[in-house]
Amino acid sequence: MRTAISDLLKHDNELTNILTGGLFDRQGISRDKTPTAWDDFKELKPCAVLTMNTRARRIEIGMADQFFKIYFYQQSGYDQIDLAMERTYDLLHGQRVITAKGWNYEILHANDFGDSEDPALLASMSFSRYQAVLLRRI
Questions:
Q1: Residue 70 in contact with residue 48, Cβ under 8 Å?
Q2: pTM for this structure?
Q3: Which end of the chain has less Cβ packing within 10 Å, N or C?
Q4: Helix (H) or strand (E) holding 89
């Protein structure tokens, strides 16, 4: 699931032009782990982190819906964050994704949390939460 979503986002030119610092998986952002997220002046470029969260079990089929979040960052302000969140919504909401194991999911936007700050990065932050609803196995 993570790979399918990440690939979908990373291959969109419009989104990558907004997220000039990159789109990262689960490891978070730091100068050591994600050096491309920082500019020559050591300021955080607009970037995002995809994290997989809880699963909601569906007993009748022995599988689960998957929730995930995408955290968006920039050094200050929210202009690029807002653009990236909007583009991500356009790419993901209602999209069908098939995993490598053949599971077919529909992605639905759940909610946004905006205009916040990340105290560790001293940067602006917002996130979007999505639900990948299991439809069937292909």
A1: yes
A2: 0.91
A3: C
A4: helix 79-92
Q: What is the rounded end-to-end Cα distance, in angstroms, of the chain? A: 14
CATH topology of domain 2-137: STM4215-like (3.30.2000)
Within 8 A by CB and 6+ apart from 137, the residues are: 102, 103, 104
CB 9, CB 87: distance < 8 Å: no
Specify the pairing of strand 47-58 against strand 22-25.
parallel
Under the banding of pLDDT at 50, 70 and 90, the label for residue 88 is very high
Distance from C-alpha of 66 to C-alpha of 2, rounded to nearest angstrom = 10
